[in-house]
């Protein structure tokens, strides 16, 4: 099973270390950040399954970090903050956090909340579209079937539904070569006939949107079809 990665963003090293200690005991991999900017850059450059954010951090506060994460990701976010008013909690939840804990805190309760949020996220992904289609990741490319989104190094890539379906099918079977006929029948759900040009045009547009001018992601196997090089 994939080892889950947790981002801990807090400028108080003692708290970040305490949280890491308890999460590591549960088998989680932890990445620590001491500023809001560092937290955002971590999410953009690495695979993170859940973020634990302080609100009061230097430069960029936890609210702004959440706003920026939410532009590209639906990962669970838990605020862990010394701000204890109801308004603070409501603000955090309204802007996109999934849970809110106040300091001082019980580390075991935090672990329990992390476990609960990850279970909920896994269940949501499995139920999306009535299937258990997983999020696919390869070299900075993240393809999320539940949200029907694609990001490349944290930046959204706007695809049409058919382009998304082609990319997801190819990326689900890296190195496997799909004929144009197979792609058309799988994505369009219709008999193939003479639809090779339709597939070719969609592949060309998909490559352009991915900045794939050297066919890094989608390779043509001449006379056979297309394959994902993830």
TrEMBL record:
Q: Is Transcription regulation found in the keyword set?
A: yes
One Pfam family name is: Response_reg
- Which residues get modified to 4-aspartylphosphate? 54
Please name the PROSITE patterns in this protein's record: OMPR_PHOB, RESPONSE_REGULATORY
Domain OmpR/PhoB-type intervals: 133-230
Q: What InterPro entries is this protein classified in?
A: CheY-like_superfamily (IPR011006), OmpR/PhoB-type_DNA-bd (IPR001867), Sig_transdc_resp-reg_receiver (IPR001789), WalR-like (IPR039420), WH-like_DNA-bd_sf (IPR036388)
Tell me which residues make up the Response regulatory domain.
5-118
Question: What residue ranges does this record give for the DNA-binding region?
Answer: 133-230
- Superkingdom, taxonomy of origin: Bacteria
- Please verify whether the record's keywords include Transmembrane helix: no
**Keyword vocabulary terms for this entry:** DNA-binding, Phosphoprotein, Transcription, Transcription regulation, Two-component regulatory system
Cross-referenced PANTHER family? REGULATOR OF RPOS, RESPONSE REGULATOR SAER
Entry protein name = Response regulator transcription factor
The organism is Paenibacillus artemisiicola
């Amino acid at each position: 099973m994939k080892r889950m990665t947790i981002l801990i963003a807090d400028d108080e090293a003692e708290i970040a270390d305490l949280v890491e200690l308890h999460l590591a005991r549960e088998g989680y991999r932890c990445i620590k950040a001491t500023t809001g900017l560092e937290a955002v850059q971590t999410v953009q450059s690495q695979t993170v399954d859940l973020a634990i954010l302080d609100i009061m951090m230097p430069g960029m506060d936890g609210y702004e970090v959440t706003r920026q994460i939410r532009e590209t990701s639906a990962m669970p976010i838990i605020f862990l903050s010394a701000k204890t008013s109801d308004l603070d909690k409501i603000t955090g939840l309204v802007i996109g956090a999934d849970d809110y804990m106040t300091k001082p805190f019980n580390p075991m309760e935090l672990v329990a909340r992390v476990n609960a949020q990850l279970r909920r996220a896994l269940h949501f992904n499995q139920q999306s579209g009535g299937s258990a289609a997983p999020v696919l990741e390869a070299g900075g490319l993240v393809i999320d079937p539940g949200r029907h989104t694609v990001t490349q190094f944290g930046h959204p890539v706007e695809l049409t539904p058919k382009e998304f379906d082609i990319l997801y099918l190819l990326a689900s079977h890296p190195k496997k070569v799909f004929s144009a006929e197979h792609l058309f029948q799988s994505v369009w759900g219709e008999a193939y006939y003479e639809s090779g040009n339709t597939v070719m045009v969609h592949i060309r547009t998909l490559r352009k949107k991915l900045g794939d001018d050297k066919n890094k992601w989608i390779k043509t196997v001449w006379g056979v079809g297309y394959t994902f090089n993830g």
